[in-house]
Amino acid sequence: MLQLNYLREQTAEAKSRLNKRNPNFASVVDEVLALDEKARAAKKEMETNQAEANVIAKQIGELMKNGKREEAEALKQQTSQLKADAKLLEDKSKQLDEELFAKLVTLPNTPNEIVPEGKTPEENVTVYQYGDLPALDKAALPHWDLITNYNLIDFELGTKITGAGFPVYRGKGARMQRGLVNFFLDEAMKAGYEEIVPPFLVNAESGFGTGQLPDKEGQMYHAQVDDLYLIPTAEVPITNIYRDVILKEEELPIKNVGYSPCFRREAGSWGAHVRGLNRLHQFEKVEIVQIATPEQSYQLLDEMVKHVQSLLEKLELPYRILRLCGGDMGFTSALTYDFETYSAAQQRWLEVSSTSNFESFQANRLKCRYKNKEGKNHLVHTLNGSALALPRILATILENNQTPNGIKVPKALIPYVGFDMIS
RNA sequence: GGAGAGUUGGCAGAGUGGUCGAUUGCGGCAGUCUUGAAAACUGUUGUCUGUCAUAGGACCGGGGGUUCGAAUCCCUCACUCUCCGCCA
After folding, report:
1. Which of A104, A145, A212, A408 is the most buried (most CB within 10 A)?
2. How far is the CA of A294 from the C1' of B71 (A)?
């Protein structure tokens, strides 16, 4: 949620930044500001009324104390009009507040200056590319064939137990999965992140805090009896640790890492290129989260990008980094870098990480602030990134490392899985 | 699941209708004393909103109600604790 102060004081800048997403937002900003003015006026009226009533109530208290019953009764008569007004003024103010809020939450975050213009993924900018694209021979198989041949993952079994998109990993497939999770967690720990095991279901407040609700309601599984949501990413529970919290400036930046399964309904997004591990309803991911001051946040974003790079390089995977354009960026993000690995048999780039700075957009919803050295509270900046999402990493490893004799395990992973070859 | 007791400021813990935004203790901060520190003493110490600045408004788990006036009374929801039951 954008800060009203910012919209009021830097209207032109806010509009021009939002423009990168969609020019229609400029008029929404105007509507928000108009509502804001109305709501503030209504509130003032209500408070003036309240102040008068408070004065009289105090006087009555004084009179009662001194035994001046009759004078007190006389004063009570005076309050009837104030009381009637109070009800109306309060309702009006509340209603305007609600309208304002409903409008405000429809505005996405303002893109950073360096975010490229553009509407579609084609307009994302590749800022870095690493590694040679492996040249596989013609007999090379896509991962969905490899996992069957080597009995690593059983999709049909998952379909039987649950439904499409819930694979069953087994044997060396399961071992790869666990090894990757441990590898990613260890690497994050070495980089100074505190490990968190969060709840995998969250309440609606948490869903709102990080921006999944009300915007992406349909994306999450909802356990309706208990009104809880299965997390689409560990970002949600971990970032919500800091909801309604005032931190000390010295505590920042806070670095957390957490593993979790991620549940995504992906309604309506099934199609030709979601075969195999490319898109699932349940997948595993290790997520890094940082809570920072505005001064720190962009430097930390770079640090996170470097961390993700080091993971991919240790796994010997060719990758590229994209700076997302305004139209492709998530609702809550101010700047996002996507990481894609090259899946050689599919001859496709697969997104394996999305690393973003949300500036104060989530913090405003979370009410997560820090007290600076002067004792003033400011909203923190929040950041997060996948480090990394497992299924596509596994797909890439399987495809790129296949040989006639089996699949070679990347060196860094061997200690984590206990074998160097899947055959 | 059954029965009971609670939820107050960073923490502990008073407060049952009117100068309570809230006694007190601890902690924190500042000062006195000291070469320095501790102790002791003194002062200070929540958040949001609002104003150029004052003033004003709101917040005692959440929501609603009664009242001129609610931390205090009523309703409702959530959570915590204790005992019993069940259970990985």
Report:
1. A212
2. 38
Query: What is the per-residue pLDDT across A166-180, written as a single tens digit (0 to 9) for each?
Result: 999 999 999 999 999
- Whether A204 sits with its Cβ under 7 A from any strand B atom: the answer reads no
> What range defines the domain where residue A51 resides?
4-104
Which value does ipTM take for this structure?
A: 0.82
By C-alpha distance, which of A300, A261, A256 is closest to A281?
A261
* Residues A371 and A322 reside in one and the same domain: yes
A243 and A323 share a domain?
yes
Neighbours of A15 (CB within 10 A): 18
Number of domains in chain A: 2
Q: Are A96 and A155 members of one domain? A: no
A79 CB contact with strand B at below 7 Å: yes
By residue count, chain A amounts to: 423
Residue A113 forms part of a structural domain? no
pLDDT at A78 over 60: yes
A243 touches strand B (CB under 7 A): no
CA–C1' nearest nucleotide, residue A87? B65
Spatial distance from the CA of A204 to the C1' of B78 (Å): 14
Q: Whole-number Å distance, CA A415 to C1' B81?
A: 47
Over the stretch A343-388, which tens digit does the pLDDT of each residue have? 888 888 999 999 999 999 999 998 888 887 777 888 999 999 999 9
Same domain, A217 and A331: yes
Q: Are residues A15 and A156 in the same domain?
A: no
Rounded distance in angstroms from the CA atom of residue A244 to the C1' atom of nucleotide B5: 28
CA A9 to C1' B54 (Å) is: 23
Helices marked H in A150-273: 155-161, 172-190, 204-209, 235-239
